[in-house]
Amino acid sequence: MSKPNDQNGRTDADKQNENSPQPRHQRTDIVHTGLDPFDHYGFINPPSYRGSTVLFPTVEALQARTQPYLYGRRGTPTVRALEAAIAKLEGAARSFVTSSGLAAINLTMFALLKQGDHILIIDNAYQPTRAFADGVLAKFGIEISYFDPLVGSGIAQLLKPNTKVIFTEAPGSQTFEMPDIGAISAVAQANNIWHVMDNTWASPLYFKPFNHGVDISIQAATKYIVGHSDAMLGAVSVSDQAVDELVKAVDVIGFNPGSEETYLGLRGIKTIDVRLARHWQSGVEMALWLEQRPEIERVLHPALPSHPGHHIWKRDFLGASGLFAVILKPCSKAAVAAMLDHLELFGMGYSWGGFESLVIPFDPRPYRTATTWPAQGQALRFHIGLEDVEDLKTDLEAGFRRLASTPANLIG
Ligand SMILES: *Cc1c(COP(=O)(O)O)cnc(C)c1O
C-alpha cells in the first residue's frame, strides 16, 4: 500500500522542506508539492484514483476509522495531492477541493452560516454567488446585504450584531473595482467575523490572501488551476482557525470532485507559473493597445496605471491574470454583434482561464444593488490566452472595422 499523506495532505517531501533551513521558492514548491513518486512505483504523478468503497482489513480497523482513506467521497490520494499543492500556493493551513468553484463558495457559506446570521457581500461578486445567497441562503433565514466594493474600512459602519461573514472578491467579477482587502480584514478581525475572499482572478500565484488577513480563500480552480478549459473544479483554502468548520461541512455536504477532474487539476497546477506569466504579459499588452483605440471609452484592468485601483493592485498583488474588461464608446448592439460574431481567434463563451482567448459582452447594471454601475457604453470582457498578441490584435482590428461599418452604428 502506498504511504498516505498526513492529515493536512502534506507529503514526506513537504515535511523535509519544513525542516530545512532554506525555504524553497514558490516555483519549486508548485512543481513538487503533493507528489510522492515512490508511493507509486516511481511514476511521477499519482494515478487518478477512482473509488467509492475503501476496504478495511479488520473489524477493529473499520471501527477505529484511523485509516487515511475511508470512503471515496471523503478524498483519495489524488485529491490529497491536489489539496496539498493548492494549500501550499495559497499559503493556507489546509485546502479542500470541490466539484466546481460555485460548490466551493456554497460549501463555505453552509459551513459558516446559520439561521439568523447576517452576511455582507461585495456588490461586484460573481453573479451566481449573489444568486446562491439570494435564492438559497435567504430561504434558510440568513440576512444578506451588499456593499460598495470601494468601502474600505467604512465596512465597520455596515456591521450588525449578527454579522458573521464578509464575502469579497478582488478585483470584482466583470467590473474590476479593486477593494482594499487588508482594510476589510482589519474590521473583520476586530469584530470576530469571517472574511471569505474569492481569489480566482489573481489565482493563488498572484495574490496571497492569508498575508492580507483573509480567513478563507476560494478558487474557481476551473479557471487557472485546471488551465485548459477541460474540467470543472473548486477549492476552499483556510487558515488554522477555520479548519474545523470546513472539515465538519466537508464531511456532511458531499461536494467532492470527480476523479478525472481532480487529476486534471493536479496536472494543470504544475504549469500555472509559466502560463500565468504569459497571460499577465499579454493581457497588459492587449489592454494598453485597446486603451489607444478610438472605439474604446475605458479599459478596466487593475495593472494599468489608468485604473482607479491601480495603487492597491501594486501594493497587494504579485501579478495580474489575463482577464479584464473594456467599455466601448456608445454604439448599437448590432455593431457590437457584427464585431464579435466573426472573430477568428477570440471565442465567445462563459468561463475563462484556459489557453485560448475569449470575449463576451456583459451588462452589470441589472444585478447590482448597493451601487449603480455608471458606464453608459456597452462592455466587453476579454480573456487573453496564450496566442501571439499580434495575431490577437489583427483579429480585433478586423472586428473594429465591422463595428464601424455596421449601418445601425449610425443610428445606434
Ligand atoms: C468562474 C467563477 C466562479 C465559479 O466557478 P465554477 O467552477 O464555474 O463554478 C466563481 N468565482 C469567480 C470569480 C469565477 O470567475
**Name of the top-level CATH class of the largest domain:** Alpha Beta
> Given the C-alpha coordinates, what overall shape results?
globular
Total E-strand runs: 11
Q: Helix count, per DSSP?
A: 15
Question: What's the topology here?
Answer:
Layout: H1 12-19, H2 26-32, H3 59-64, H4 77-90, E1 94-98, H5 101-112, E2 118-122, H6 127-137, E3 143-147, E4 163-169, H7 181-190, E5 194-198, H8 203-206, E6 216-219, E7 234-238, H9 243-253, H10 259-269, H11 272-291, E8 296-300, H12 310-316, E9 323-328, H13 333-341, E10 358-362, E11 379-383, H14 389-405, H15 408-411
Parallel strand pairs: 2-3, 2-4, 4-5, 5-6
Antiparallel strand pairs: 1-7, 6-7, 8-9, 9-11, 10-11
Helix pairs in contact: 2-4, 4-10, 5-6, 5-9, 13-14
Bound molecules: pyridoxal-5'-phosphate.
What does it look like?
The chain is of the alpha/beta class and 412 residues long. 37% of the residues lie in helices and 14% in strands. It is built from 15 helices and eleven strands. The chain has a seven-stranded mixed beta sheet with strand order 1-7-6-5-4-2-3, with helices on both faces. The protein has a four-stranded antiparallel beta sheet with strand order 8-9-11-10, covered by helices on one side. α6 links the parallel β2 (118-122) and β3. It is globular. The structure holds pyridoxal-5'-phosphate. Pyridoxal-5'-phosphate binds next to α5.
